[in-house]
Specification:
The protein is mainly alpha-helical. It folds into 2 domains: 10-90, Arc Repressor Mutant, subunit A; 93-258, Tetracycline Repressor, domain 2, CATH 1.10.357.10. Helix content is 64%, strand content 0%.
C-alpha cells in the first residue's frame, strides 16, 4: 500500500503543519472537546498497531471516543491527518549528533537511528517520498543529516545527491524488514514455514538448478547465505546485515569522493 502525501487542501494542510505548538490551548473561548494534536496522536496509535490499511476517520474517531463526523471540525479529511501524523512522528528523530569522532561516526549513528525509527513506525515507509509533506519535523530530519554531510567538505550538489541516496538506502532495506514482519500476520504463514515448504519444491522443479544458476550456487556453496544468528528470522537478519554492509560501503564511497578517488 502506497499513500501519497499532500492530497488535501494545500493551504489548510500547511496551516495545520506549521501552526505554533500549543496554539489550540491559547485560543479564547471554551476549551474544545478534541484537539488536532489529540486526533493526530490517536491516528499514529492506529497506524502503529494496525497499519495504514486500518486508518480511517472512523477508526481514529473510535480511538478518541467520537464519531468520524466530529473530527471534521478539526481536520478537513483523512489526507490532512496523514500529512500531520507523518510529520508529527518525525519529532522523535534526534536533532544533534556528536561530531567529535568525525562525520562518519555521526552519519552511522544517524542511519542506525533512522533504521530503528522506521521499524518502530513501519507505516511511515508506506508514505511515498515522491511528494514530501513539507512539515517542520520532516525538515528537522533533513537539516540534521545535512549538518553532518556538510562536514565532509563535498560540493553542495554532491551533498544533495548523496543525502537522497542515503535516505533511500535506509528506507529501502527497512521496508523489506517491515514487509517480512507483516507477511506472517497477513498470510498466516511464518517465514520459516514458508521457506521449509518451498525450498524442497525448488530442488524438485529445477534439478538442474546448479547448472542454470552457477553464480547463485557458488555463493551458496561458499556459505554466502549463512547468517550469524539462526534464532532471528532469515530475512530480517539478512536485511540488517545488508543495511550495515551497504551503509559501510556507502560511507567508503563518500570518503573516496572526498579524496578524489572516484
Amino acid at each position: 500500500m502506497v499513500v501519497y502525501a499532500g492530497q488535501g487542501n494545500p493551504r489548510r494542510a500547511m496551516e495545520l503543519l506549521w501552526r505554533t505548538p500549543g496554539e489550540e490551548a491559547t485560543k479564547p473561548g471554551p476549551k474544545p472537546a478534541l484537539t488536532v494534536d489529540g486526533i493526530v496522536a490517536a491516528a499514529i496509535q492506529v497506524a502503529d498497531e494496525r497499519g495504514m490499511t486500518a486508518l480511517s476517520m472512523r477508526t481514529v474517531g473510535e480511538r478518541v471516543g467520537r464519531t468520524a463526523m466530529a473530527l471534521y471540525t478539526y481536520v478537513p479529511s483523512k489526507s490532512e491527518i496523514v500529512d500531520l501524523m507523518y510529520d508529527s512522528v518525525h519529532a522523535e528523530a534526534h536533532r544533534t549528533y556528536d561530531l567529535s569522532a568525525g562525520w562518519r561516526a555521526a552519519l552511522t549513528a544517524w542511519a542506525e537511528d533512522m533504521w530503528s525509527f522506521y521499524l518502530r513506525h513501519p507505516w511511515v515507509l508506506q508514505v511515498s517520498q515522491a511528494r514530501p509533506v513539507l512539515g517542520p519535523n520532516e525538515y528537522v530530519v533533513l537539516d540534521t543529516v545535512l549538518g553532518i554531510m556538510f562536514e565532509t567538505g563535498l560540493a553542495p550538489a554532491e551533498i544533495r545527491r548523496l543525502t537522497g541516496a542515503l535516505f533511500q538506502l535506509v528506507r529501502g532495506i527497512a521496508l523489506v524488514v517491515a514487509e517480512a514482519r507483516e507477511a506472517a500476520a497477513a498470510t498466516g504463514t511464518g517465514e520459516d514455514e514458508w521457506w521449509h515448504t518451498r525450498a524442497p519444491l525448488l530442488s524438485e522443479m529445477a534439478p538442474d538448478f546448479a547448472t542454470r544458476f552457477p553464480m547463485v550456487t557458488k555463493l551458496a556453496e561458499a556459505g554466502g547465505f549463512t547468517l550469524a544468528d539462526e534464532t532471528v528470522p532469515y530475512l530480517e537478519q539478512s536485511s540488517k546485515e545488508t543495511f550495515r554492509s551497504g551503509l559501510a560501503a556507502f560511507l567508503d564511497g563518500i570518503e573516496a569522493s572526498m579524496t578524489g578517488e572516484h
